[in-house]
Design a protein that fits this description.
Two copies of one chain form a homodimer. By secondary structure, chain A is α/β, with parallel strands linked by helices. Chain A has eleven helices and ten strands. In chain A, 44% of the residues lie in helices and 15% in strands. In chain A, the strands form three sheets. In chain A, strands 1-2-9-10 form a four-stranded parallel sheet, sandwiched between helices. In chain A, β3 (62-64), α3 and β4 form a beta-alpha-beta unit. In chain A, α4 (88-99) packs across α6. The two termini of chain A are 29 Å apart. The interface between A and B is large, with 52 and 52 residues.
Chain lengths: 281, 281
């Protein structure tokens, strides 16, 4: 499982329920998060680095828990990886397309996810004629990280962001960011009781089970030494502590830091009037 | 000038007013921002990388515009650099210590800045017996980046964060983050008219002028080819566009990307049960 930080633990929780016998290796890029406000080239580069790191663990499949990375880098990851790479976008879109009754689907996510138009495309591929209302909610992640889950400010922000979805009469809303399930109550309250909230983490876990089953790769029982391993690029203590908010029990026993130093980009300057390797994006 | 992103442009604005004849090279680490929620080791590493990059430009002095980097990495930068390295923390503290009449100083900043206790130490070194009330305001940066400068939600968040400062009767408040001057109006409104807001950018610009003057390094007139050069690690277009919000005129003409790829950290895994170079922090 790859995520920009710890939001992917909502996906881990779903995977644990769906596939309890599987081992799991997690990489959270906490030194460089968030991905939601970064460019496509940068998200692709960071995602390929994560793929190369996780490839060392002989994984059977890679789950991209980060919506921004799923939206912007899934194709390059799939082109590079010799195993299945599953993103939360396709999985969430499939479930939403099946769930909506009136054909009006809301999508909320980071600016990068919403701008990419990935959910619109995925929904259109699953079912024709859906009306999609997508809104970026950039303040939701900082509000979750601030712990303002049940807070008047969070309700005011949610009312502001979700008004177009409410006005558009959506009956289904994709929570297009791993942090958003934690705001499920507030979001549900603002959108009204009849709206189905789609947690992409649950959707992708079901899809992983299907893919592994199809290929005869599903573990029947936990192997000896079965465990979950967590790697982060910064702040393992915070990851372990905040992990409790995401995982229902103390699953986060082993959290280690992956050092990202010895980065030579700054040394490639050769005193000339251009930075070698520099690109106009 | 080094900053984690574009907030340092408030410092550039102050430097331009104070030292109009000097050339300027700016590096904003937009691919890895924000620094405010990252660990000391990581902020040190990223800061040293920025120092090494900017050293290629034969600079006379380095201004660390980022409060989180000033708070956590100034000492390692000063130990490494053969030229003066000035941070916003010392400069802002000096001005606040001189400005307060009742000896009660408020400090607001990111969680990293506030946790470091850097302003308390700098203030105590300047003047004994000051009472300091420091509060982290993690939502202010995302609110500025969302453009909610004059917004009811921003006012509610400010009332929440600033209540301890108001209750403590501070008459001076250090804006300990480069984004905060943009919220100056709301912050002033919440704290009340009698409170002096200290913009660390202005303070550090005056200090740079002093240091260059003392060493006889001040430019008397703009040299031929005088210019401002901006380098970012991601999203130059966004930097140029948002720069207009920070700089009073179109100073941001040249914005280039510094490529940070070819990062070998992910390849140092050797198939063993530990990640070489990995550290328990």
């Amino acid at each position: 499982v790859f995520d920009s930080g710890l939001g992917g633990l909502t996906v881990v929780r779903a995977l644990e329920r769906e596939l309890p016998a599987e081992c799991l290796v997690y990489f959270g890029d906490t030194a460089r998060l968030p991905y939601g406000n970064k460019s496509k080239v940068t998200v692709e580069r960071l995602s390929l680095e994560a793929l190369r790191f996780l490839s060392h663990f002989e994984i059977k499949a890679l789950v991209v828990a980060c919506n921004s990375a799923s939206a912007r880098a899934l194709d390059v990851l799939q082109a590079e990886a010799p195993f299945p790479v599953l993103g939360v976008v396709e999985a969430g879109a499939a479930r939403a397309a099946a769930a909506t009754r009136n054909g009006r689907v809301g999508v909320i996510g980071t600016r990068a996810t919403v701008r990419s138009g990935c959910y619109e495309r995925a929904l259109a591929a699953r079912r024709e004629g859906l009306r999609v209302i997508a809104e970026a909610c950039p303040l939701f992640v900082p509000l979750v990280e601030e712990g303002w889950i049940d807070h008047e400010v969070t309700r005011a922000v949610a009312r502001h962001y979700l008004e177009p979805l409410r006005a558009g009469g959506v009956d289904t809303c994709i929570l297009g960011c791993t942090h958003y399930p934690l705001l499920g109550e507030v979001i549900g309250e603002v959108l009204g009781g009849g709206v189905t909230l789609i947690d992409s983490g649950e959707s992708v876990a079901a899809e992983v089970a299907g893919v592994l089953g199809d290929r005869g790769l599903r573990a029947r029982a936990p192997a000896p030494g079965h465990r979950y391993r967590f790697f982060v690029s910064d702040q393992p203590e915070q990851f372990a502590a905040q992990g409790a908010r995401f995982l229902s029990h103390a699953l986060v026993q082993e959290v280690r830091v992956v050092d990202q130093s010895a980065v030579p980009w700054y040394d490639r300057w050769a005193g000339r009037d251009a930075v070698p390797g520099e690109e106009q994006r």
